[in-house]
Specification:
This is EGF-like domain-containing protein. This protein is of the alpha+beta class. The chain is built from three helices and eleven strands; from the N terminus they run H-H-E-E-E-E-E-E-E-E-E-E-E-H. It has three domains: about 5-150, no CATH class; about 155-200, Laminin (Ribbon), CATH 2.10.25; about 200-230. The strands form three sheets. It has a seven-stranded mixed sheet, with helices on one face. A two-stranded antiparallel ribbon has the order 8-9. Strands 10-11 form a two-stranded antiparallel sheet. The structure holds 2-acetamido-2-deoxy-beta-D-glucopyranose (6 copies).
Length: about 230
């Protein structure tokens, strides 16, 4: 290996490490919202050991196949964290179990749970109500000051048929308690899925690429001519 390729490889390696660590840290920050770790005899703890997850701070992480995302948050236990508001659960949108009980939370917007399509067990202080309303859950119960919202109901037609609430050429997909979104079916894209065909990457990007190459050539040629005439 020449020293140059060696250097290039090292630079690429360090860039990769930097990129990986920064993403990794940003994603797991929520797991260290407060002290302590997930305990065995809690809702999240039981879920984590039964699903062969790994505990990290207040999270249960699950290893996935893909090398791009080495793990996702499947459980989040922020109980007894002295939180008085929850602004964002974006990084835990893959969670199946979320425990926010024993916190002095005054209110919590339904939008916080938008995107949490996998959420199946949600524990809240009993002064609150289940996001999306009771109708968005199979069972709603209160015990020992904890509100348990269990079994998220899909807003979509269970059979996965084209939903009446979604425009033509799109399918309804669950998007968290009380939420749904409309995904264009294969072969359609754009506003209200009205455009037929794949997104035209080639048509959109090749003129750009062509223009860039042409401009570079022109610049190069003029520079060369200047250099020659000097
Ligand atoms: C968390 O732990 C650190 C170090 O153990 C301590 O200094 C800090 O006061 C703790 N914070 C809370 C909110 O308990
Ligand atoms: C992991 O990869 C195997 C084989 O490639 C595949 O069968 C399996 O469904 C994947 N599991 C997940 C969780 O993606
Ligand atoms: C909450 O945390 C405090 C210490 O921070 C502890 O004394 C108390 O027992 C905890 N309560 C529950 C219900 O876990
Ligand atoms: C919580 O309640 C306060 C006061 O009633 C209100 O100003 C605030 O917008 C509410 N926050 C959310 C997230 O609903
Ligand atoms: C939702 O269900 C809980 C538990 O059964 C009940 O206490 C609460 O009043 C219900 N909320 C509404 C808006 O019906
Ligand atoms: C689902 O959609 C199909 C076709 O649009 C309809 O016949 C059926 O009644 C729907 N089922 C429910 C549970 O909404």
């Amino acid at each position: 290996m020449t020293p140059v390729t060696m250097q290039t490889k090292l630079v690429i390696f360090f860039l990769n490490v930097l990129f990986y660590t920064s993403c990794h840290l940003a994603e797991l920050q929520i797991c260290h919202t407060c002290n302590g770790t997930v305990l065995d005899q809690t809702e999240v703890g039981r879920f984590c050991s039964s699903s062969a997850g790994r505990v990290e701070g207040r999270c249960c992480l699950q290893q996935l196949n893909s090398t791009q995302t080495p793990h996702v948050i499947t459980g989040l236990d922020l109980s007894n964290c002295s939180l008085n508001q929850i602004a964002d659960l974006q990084d835990a949108s893959t969670a199946v179990v979320i425990d926010l009980s024993s916190n002095p939370i005054v209110n919590i917007s339904d939008a916080v749970f938008q995107g949490c399509a996998a959420l199946n067990d949600l524990l809240l202080p009993s002064s609150l109500s289940c996001p999306g309303g009771n109708a968005s859950w199979e069972t709603v119960s209160i015990s020992e000051g904890i509100l348990l919202c269990r079994g998220q109901r899909s807003m979509c037609n269970e059979t996965g048929h084209l939903s009446l609430s979604c425009p033509e050429n799109s399918l309804c997909a669950p998007d968290g308690p009380g939420f749904f979104r409309c995904d264009c079916v294969h072969g359609y894209h754009g506003y209200k899925c009205l455009r037929e065909g794949e997104f035209p990457f080639i048509q959109v990007f090749s003129p750009l690429a062509g223009a860039t190459v042409l401009l570079s050539l022109v610049l190069w040629a003029t520079e060369r001519r200047k250099a020659k005439s000097n």
